[in-house]
Amino acid sequence: MRQEKSALPVRRVAVSGAGAVSGLGWGVRALWDGLRSGRTAIRPFARFDHALHRTHLAAEVADGDGAPPEELIRDCPDWRRLSVADRFALFAALEAVRQAGLDLPLAESGTEAGVWFGSSTGGMWESERFFHRYVTDRRRSRLADLAAQQVNGPGDAVARRLGVTGPVQTISSACSSGALALGAALDAVRSGTVEVAVAGGSDSLCQLTYAGFNALRAVDEGPCLPFRAGRAGMSFGEGAAVLVLEPLERALERGATPLAELAGAGSSCDAHHMTAPDPSGAGAAAALASALRDAGLAPDAVDFVNAHATGTPLNDAAEWQALRSVFGERAAEIPAVLTKALLGHLLGSAGALEAVVTVLCLLHGELHPAPGGEREAGEDGQSAALPASLVLDRPLPLPGARTAVSTSLAFGGSNAALVFSRFLETTA
Amino acid sequence: MSELIAVPNRIKRLIVESLHLEGMRPEMIEDEAPLFGEGLGLDSVDALELVVALEKEFGIKIRSQELGREVFSSVSSLSQFIEGRT
Questions:
Q1: How many whole angstroms separate alpha carbon A36 and alpha carbon A21?
Q2: Torsion angle, alpha carbons of A234, A328, A358, A423, to 10
Q3: Chain A within 8 Å of B37 (Cβ-Cβ)?
Q4: Higher-confidence position of B48 and A303
């Protein structure tokens, strides 16, 4: 049970830095510019040969502008051994820590810090490469690929690079991993276990997950259409996102400008089925309600939702039920941001990337659109349109937005919700 | 054909290829330069990868007790070790 908030040493927790890598590019700037444009990053990709699969798209992180600068590579002694997901994580973590204005290495600079990370894939792609080479031409297989396969690789790599000697934890719970990691980090900062938490997630495209979801027929052949009529499944994405969390007072005292506050976190489990969500959305609703209680806020306070919204017929429908049960009649009016329509589904680290997106929307007072507009109802009853208020095609200015909720509802029933508040100087 | 290439040069090529040292060419590695710690800065994981590569390239077996600092300290010492075994 979460400890009574008033009994904890820290009352308010600031987000003092953010970093991201995604299909829209390297860095938060590229992410926000891309999101505002409403152009999807889901397109043909080159990470591996997908000719034999039923689908051929993903929001792949491309090399190019903003790709890891020389200094990131040079200052990292084991760069050549790191997985793709590790590298994404390092870039995002360094961007976040730099923005927060923290000196590195953290422990040596006197900052008691911890790392909380979420991932589904870790170095799964690298281990696939190892086994492929081992079977086809053993001489080409690399021990380094095997060493990089761990799901805790990204979190550990971040801890090494930042000089974190406090708690370092990786949570792997499918699509709720990153959000749960942020929740655990929030607990650690509130309880005074650490002064600073570096929290987020990282995932790369890989064959196992691509094949697995395709085998389940859960993937749309085109870019996914969350919550729309005729939606046919998810799209894949990759990347990393990191938030720096610290007590609000500590951030302000050292002259940092908070991007937002992480006001609350909640989680639950469907205890329903290995892959299908509870269609009533009861588990998701419980996580949402728990997060709002933890934030000390009523459902009426929520100005927009960054929905999990994968684009699968069943998951979206269940999430809609959850929104209805938590927000009542308001559910049809609260704007819903559909980030996966542009960035795809990163799996474990989706919750972390969408947390960064939620913070950016609050900071800029604007909700990013999803492309594709409304859709004609399909013949299949399962993919009817859901009557949420979707942000489509054009950004929605919402300068007065103060509170947002981001949901992450995992394959297998683990549900997580995070509540973010806009940082206002007047309330500090 | 590879027997005609001197053992030190074959070792240098192996180091660069099997350890994926980007930006490094075999001719940039000096025979006597330290491989581990300082110099090339290789570490324990590199040592394991190098052992596997050397075993495959030269058709020898390297026992774990032989993974000592002396044998692996430079290309030159490695070369002497291998020529003694082939």
A1: 16
A2: -170
A3: no
A4: A303
Average pLDDT score over residue span A243-261: 97
CATH class of A13-427: alpha beta
Domains of chain B: 2-85 (1.10.1200.10)
Nearest CA in chain B to A141: B18
CA distances from A384 to A136, A311, A374, B51, B66 (A): 47, 12, 11, 60, 68
Q: CA A237, CA A257: separation in Å to the nearest integer?
A: 31
**A80 chain-B contacts, CB cut-off 8 A:** 19-22
In A, residues 159-198, which contact B (CB 8 Å cutoff)?
Answer: none
ipTM for the whole complex: 0.71
CA distances to A392, A399, A424, B69 from A367, in Å: 10, 9, 18, 60
Give the single-character DSSP code of A384. P
Report chain B residues whose CB lies below 8 A from the CB of A77.
41
3-state SS record for A97-108? HHHHCCCCCCCC
Lowest-pLDDT range of A205-214, A269-278, A288-297:
A269-278
The model's confidence at residue B1, banded by pLDDT at 50, 70 and 90, is very low
Q: How far is B60 from chain A (nearest CA, A)?
A: 14
Residue-level pLDDT at A20: 97
Q: How far is B49 from chain A (nearest CA, A)?
A: 6
3-state secondary structure of A45: coil
CA–CA gap between residue A222 and residue A57 (Å, rounded): 7
Chain A interface includes B20 (CB < 8 A): yes
User: Does A74 touch chain B if contact means CB atoms closer than 8 Å?
Assistant: no
Cα separation, A182 vs A416, whole angstroms = 10
Q: Is A52 touching B (CB cutoff 8 A)?
A: no
Q: B45, A147: Cβ pair inside 8 Å?
A: yes
CB within 8 Å: A144 and B48: no
Mean pLDDT of the region A121-134: 95
Residues of A with catalytic function:
175, 308, 345
Work out the number of other CB atoms within 10 angstroms of the CB of residue A11. Answer: 12
The whole-angstrom separation of Cα A272 and Cα B11 is 58
For residue A105, cis peptide bond before it (omega within 30 degrees of 0): yes
Contacts of B56 in chain A (CB under 8 A): 139
Least Cα separation, residue B46 to chain A (angstroms): 8
Instruction: Yes or no: say if A352 and A92 are a contact pair by the CB < 8 Å rule.
Output: no
**Please, which pLDDT band fits residue A382 given cuts at 50, 70 and 90?**
low
Chain A's closest residue to B47, CA to CA, is A143
